[in-house]
Amino acid sequence: QLQLVESGGGLVQPGGSLRLSCAASGFTLDFYSIGWFRQAPGKEREGVSCISSSDSSTYYADSVKGRFTISRDNAKNTVYLQINSLKPEDTAVYSCAAGLPLLTVQAMCVMTTGFNYWGLGTQVTVSS
To answer: Which residues are within 8 A (CB) of 121 and not within 5 positions of it... i.e. 6 or more apart?
Structure first.
């Protein structure tokens, strides 16, 4: 069974940090570009960060630049999203997705297109 499973979400105070993980099973992530997306209640899904399969080029939404870092460990078949300096507006369900690199990571992230596999998501809540 091909699937992506996110973990690492939780309740954190403003200014705190979390590391989200996206683990693949049933297929290898080596050949896929990976994206992290988030969706808050009543809002559209937003492409937060994406990383390519080939040269590990990355894209970050303006709202998270300087605070979020995406990385991949192909040996562990896992992609991570380190999120620092969390703000209440970061509260959302965070999901990862994998897609073949037919477009640039920026295009994939901004247009939320080209992704074949999606995880169910992990909740991140930022509150004091």
So the answer is: 6, 39, 93, 94, 95
